[in-house]
Specification:
By secondary structure, the chain is of the alpha/beta class. The chain has 13 helices and 13 strands.
């Protein structure tokens, strides 16, 4: 049976031994993959500047420029590039050091045809999924703007949504759940129904229960807060990011994170104590890095992620925040434990869905925390939007954590990766 792979662009083979280059080219072509070659890393870098490649197959030990330096230089210019290292070096320490560079796989010479096919097949599928995600994100950004504008100006139609707007059924159901569950809009609808049922009409006036009326007055606060958060959400979506970027360093990023942490500590003290959740002080990175950022939107993003961690953390747990750098990106990681009996965390098949507008993975755990800026059901959607505008990557998913106790447990890890600049 013929083995065929579908890679849009050719691959680049960087190998100083001619016989090895020729062998890999023949194998690649037998899989239906076009390949170019370079005898050292310097020539490979020059070729990569002139042409796009699906991936790079790199030898480690080469003259002029070795594989380590080639990978680092390409990653600085094209951070999302994919690499397979093909080397005769099977020393575990060397393999670990190479894997830290963020390569896709490490193959030991001599090259096994079936093993090479398996790796190229996985890369082909990875590229396909990334392209699908890119298209989905682009479509969602446009759809989100349209949905938010509709909500702001058509909220009076909430009780009859199906007759007034042509939205997909899934988005419509998620949107209705966001409005009619929890405090604010949902509570006011319920209170008005109670008033309607208990009202006594006397000529031109109605008599209502004072308790129900006072309850209505109290919930107006949450309704106004919801509308304000909707305005802030639209403000971010309509922002001209290109005119607001400035170069900030790792110390400033640390300051933004600490500011969000301290704000959460003070403004939600009662709720935090009720759950007995702690958020330790965030360590300052040892090395300095610069990124181009809109400070206001980045600050809001960190605040939203910390609030999200607090809402969905299990009782008696810790929320940890780490800052690190790798592969040309500054990474901000937020880790929180969750109670699997009430919240499933972020299962693998839900990682993209939780970024969708108004998608609910779990019930309304708590919707009225202080300083929550984004409209209910849009928090992670706008975080993803803001980070994409910064040229970065936002991901959130379950991971197995071995650092907490004697037994590894499943936790949620939210990661913001922002490109480092000179």
């Amino acid at each position: 049976m013929a083995l065929r792979l579908n890679l849009h662009n050719p691959i680049l083979i960087i190998e100083d031994q001619e016989e090895n280059r020729d062998l890999i080219v023949r194998l690649a072509k037998s899989f239906g993959v076009e390949a170019d070659t370079a005898a050292d890393g310097k020539v490979g870098c020059e070729m990569a500047e002139k042409k796009d490649y699906s991936l790079y197959l790199v030898d480690l030990e080469m003259p002029v420029m070795n594989g380590f330096d080639f990978i680092k230089q390409i990653k600085e210019k094209k951070p999302e590039s994919l690499f397979i290292v093909v080397s005769g070096n099977d020393v575990p320490e060397i393999i670990i050091e190479v894997m830290k560079l963020g390569i896709f796989d490490y193959l030991i010479k001599p090259i096994d045809r079936e093993r090479l096919y398996q790796v190229l097949d996985r890369i082909s599928e990875y590229i396909r999924l990334k392209e699908s995600e890119r298209i989905l994100i682009q479509e969602n950004e446009e759809r989100l703007k349209a949905q938010l504008n509709w909500i702001l100006y058509k909220q009076s139609w909430l009780t009859d949504l199906e007759k007034n707007i042509d939205l997909s059924k899934s988005t419509l159901n998620n949107l209705k759940q966001s409005f009619f569950s929890g405090g604010g809009f949902g509570a006011i609808v319920s209170i008005v129904e109670m008033l309607q049922a208990s009202a006594k009409k006397e000529e031109t006036t109605y008599n209502f229960s004072s308790d129900i009326v006072e309850l209505l007055f109290e919930n107006i606060y949450y309704t106004k807060k919801g509308l304000l958060s909707l305005e802030k959400s639209l403000e971010i979506l309509n922002k001209n990011f290109q005119n607001s970027f400035q170069k900030i360093n790792s110390t400033q990023i640390h300051h933004l994170l600490e500011k969000s942490r301290l704000r959460l500590e003070s403004s939600n003290e009662q709720y935090k104590q009720k759950k007995n959740v702690t958020i330790p002080q965030i360590s300052l990175p040892s090395n300095g890095y610069h990124i181009n950022a809109d400070i206001d939107s980045l600050n809001r993003t960190f605040n939203e992620l910390l609030i999200n961690s607090l809402k969905y953390s299990s009782n008696n747990s810790v929320i940890n925040v780490y800052i690190s750098a790798s592969g040309g990106y500054l990474n901000i990681n937020m880790k929180n434990e969750f109670d699997p009996q009430s919240v499933p965390g972020i299962p693998k098949n839900k990682e993209l869905m939780v970024k969708q507008p108004f998608y609910r993975l779990a019930g309304f755990v708590h919707e009225n925390l202080e300083d929550e800026e984004y409209f209910t059901g849009l928090g992670l959607t706008i975080v993803d939007f803001v980070i994409k505008k910064h040229g970065g990557i936002f991901s959130i998913h379950n991971v197995i954590d071995h650092s907490i106790g004697e037994k590894p447990i499943e936790v949620v890890l939210a990661t913001v990766s922002l490109p480092i600049v000179d």
